[in-house]
Amino acid sequence: MSDKPSYGFTTTILHGDRQKSIEHGSLHKPIHTSVAFGYKDARDLAAVFQGKQPGYRYGRQGNPTVSALEDKITKMEDGYATICFSTGMAAIGAICQSLLRAGDHVVSSAFLFGNTNSLWQTMGGLGVNVAFVDATDVSNVEAAITPATRIVFVETIANPRTQVADLKRIGELCRARGILYVVDNTMTSPYLFRPKTVGAGLVVNALTKAIAGHGNVLGGALTDTGLYDWNAYPHIVENYKKFPVIQWGMAQIRAKALRDFGGTLGPEAAHHVAIGAETMALRQQRECENAQAVAELLAADERVAAVHYPGLPGHPQHHIAKELFRSYGALLSFELREDIDCFDFLNRMKLAIPASNLGDTRTLVIPVAHTIFYEMGAERRASMGIAESLIRVSIGLEDTEDLLEDFRQALAG
Ligand SMILES: *Cc1c(COP(=O)(O)O)cnc(C)c1O
């Protein structure tokens, strides 16, 4: 359960663990590797299994190191509770496993992380129909809703084309219709934006990206903001209705997805994420400054055909980003002029590394249509606004001038 944060973002994260007693006064929550948890009184073990007493039973369903991280994410999102998973995709998959059934309908932004797009295709084969809409305008979401719509799913800033969803108005729509609003906050991170402020019921964070932040660990999280009334959700299993209503969603997700499908975050990984999280706000500040500078450099260069970054005044959703986000994020993408080969350009870069990840400390670049969005084919790419020459940039912590010089020399070459 979250305490209302009364300190600043970084202070809260740094000192969050100590609000509960930490073993031996350790400043870091220790890495508990034990899979099982023993009880002196067998009745206590039974009480834990029956949900009558808090406690750990088996590592797949929960672990003290992971719980400490879950509390930290809950504080970051100002939420009610959080469950961590082995990856960001496991977190999104958990929604499918625990909350969706054949015959259900989902309205999803068409501008999506490639693997989430692929997951929705898979769900189609399992009888869950997904309508893909341009979520930069709430009216498209509204038009797609059917009586079977259970979930509306959007990303804050879409990867890789940086479209910003009509976050606030979609929240109002979902609230009015009693539909669960799920926001993937990975590209903004809870430092730049809290989806709870626009009415999200569930928030997804790929911990792999900004929160862990060093490209050395995978993880994902689902946070229940406490705003959604689970009474309105038709598929809550009777078993979990013995808890207060606010706990129904998390109880069902923890049992039906984490326990039954087993996408558990390991304690060592949780430790890496927790250490990374301590500096997230500082990294985000630097990365956003760098991203703005690189975006402006590219936008001013005649060899660049288009730049997509919400921090540029010409970005179609700049006004939404400006109103809702603390800054504009570390993700940008751009298209080179047709006569410049994107592979040659990438090979000229000295600092930026061709690699597939986001939110690393180092700047990473990738030719999207030829790699992460290759499998979906040209037609779907075109419908998502992905040009064949599109280069995605995940801005890192390099000194701004060094980064600008790297782009300058690669363009000049
Ligand atoms: C990376 C990413 C994910 C998936 O996270 P993994 O940890 O790689 O599974 C989900 N959503 C978005 C927006 C992402 O960028």
From TrEMBL:
A GO biological-process term: transsulfuration
InterPro entries hit by this protein: Cys/Met-Metab_PyrdxlP-dep_enz, PyrdxlP-dep_Trfase, PyrdxlP-dep_Trfase_major, PyrdxlP-dep_Trfase_small
Pfam families cross-referenced by the UniProt entry: Cys_Met_Meta_PP (PF01053)
Coiled coil: none
Cofactor(s) needed for function: pyridoxal 5'-phosphate
Keyword field contains Protease: no
A single Gene Ontology CC term: cytoplasm
GO molecular function annotation: carbon-sulfur lyase activity; pyridoxal phosphate binding
Superkingdom of this protein's organism: Bacteria
Family statement drawn from the similarity comment of this UniProt entry: Belongs to the trans-sulfuration enzymes family.
NCBIfam families attached to this UniProt entry: PRK05939.1
UniProt protein name: O-acetylhomoserine (Thiol)-lyase
Source species of the chain: Undibacterium terreum
